[in-house]
């Protein structure tokens, strides 16, 4: 029997919670194996909330973090994102940008290292769903997935638009501060240096392996030549003459 593919949907704040519930409703339409978890809906009454969330974080195979301008620096969002990245690996965690949040808004947070998805861009959302589908066993046929997306995208888009509209009605007069240009530059420099360190370490490893391979090859050739030089000539067969 095919195994369910568990997707942990992280949220903080009312708009992000509504988005998480919308994803919980719509994602299984694209592949029946997808099983989203949203804490506000899927923790049974009487269960210990933290224990249930910790168990889901361990068991999930993909994570979606619903990010808004207000919650992007929330400790709980970063805690769940960190736990998910340890459990499922970096390529399987996607920040979903809501309410006009941009990649630049993630600067200075752990979320900046992950490939983000804009909830306002149809192609981005389809790409995210395709990524999740490919990890299912078995995945849905891609052509069928695209047909399903064409069918359900208007509902998903309208739901996201409604969340945005209501959030703007309740938006505080002073929006949360965004990172400065200097903070963005520093963060990008830090990421670049980190990538350079990784590439350098990888190159050193490759060079070491090549050097070791060359030494082993030379040793084999030398040992073979040495053995051939010491090998005595074949003795003549009896009666064959001198």
Structural commentary:
- The protein has 242 residues and is α/β, with parallel strands linked by helices.
- The chain contains seven helices and five strands.
- A five-stranded parallel β-sheet has the order 2-1-3-4-5, sandwiched between helices.
- Strand 3, helix 4 and strand 4 (93-97) form a beta-alpha-beta unit.
- Helix 1 runs antiparallel to helix 6 (142-169).
- The longest helix is centred in the last third of the chain and has 50 residues, at 181-230.
- It is globular.
- The protein starts with a strand and ends in a 12-residue tail after the last helix.
- The mean pLDDT is 83.
At a glance:
By secondary structure, the protein is an alpha/beta fold. It has helices at 14-26, 39-42, 49-59, 75-88, 122-135, 142-169, 181-230; strands at 5-10, 34-37, 62-67, 93-97, 117-118.
Topology:
Blueprint: E1 5-10, H1 14-26, E2 34-37, H2 39-42, H3 49-59, E3 62-67, H4 75-88, E4 93-97, E5 117-118, H5 122-135, H6 142-169, H7 181-230
Parallel strand pairs: 1-2, 1-3, 3-4, 4-5
Helix pairs in contact: 1-6
Which short descriptors sum up this protein?
242 residues; 55% helix; alpha/beta
């Amino acid at each position: 029997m095919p195994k369910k593919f568990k997707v942990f949907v992280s949220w903080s704040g009312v708009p992000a919670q509504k988005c998480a519930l919308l994803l919980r409703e719509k994602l299984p339409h694209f592949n029946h194996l997808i099983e989203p978890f949203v804490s506000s809906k899927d923790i049974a009454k009487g269960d210990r909330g933290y224990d249930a969330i910790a168990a889901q974080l361990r068991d999930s195979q993909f994570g979606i973090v619903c990010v808004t301008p207000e919650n992007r620096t929330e400790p709980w969002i970063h805690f769940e994102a960190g736990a998910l990245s340890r459990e499922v690996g970096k390529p399987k965690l996607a920040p979903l940008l809501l309410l006009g949040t941009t990649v630049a808004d993630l600067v200075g947070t752990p979320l900046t290292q992950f490939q983000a998805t804009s909830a306002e861009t149809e192609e981005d959302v389809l790409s995210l769903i395709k990524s999740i589908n490919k990890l299912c066993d078995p995945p849905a046929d891609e052509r069928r997935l695209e047909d399903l997306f064409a069918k359900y995208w208007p509902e998903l888009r309208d739901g996201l638009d409604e969340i945005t509209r209501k959030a703007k009605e309740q938006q505080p007069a002073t929006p949360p501060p965004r990172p400065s240009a200097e903070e963005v530059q520093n963060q990008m420099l830090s990421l670049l240096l980190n990538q350079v360190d990784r590439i350098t370490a990888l190159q050193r490893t490759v060079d070491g392996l090549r050097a070791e391979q060359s030494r082993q090859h030379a040793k084999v050739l030398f040992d073979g030549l040495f053995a051939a030089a010491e090998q005595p000539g074949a003795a003549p067969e009896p009666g064959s003459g001198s």
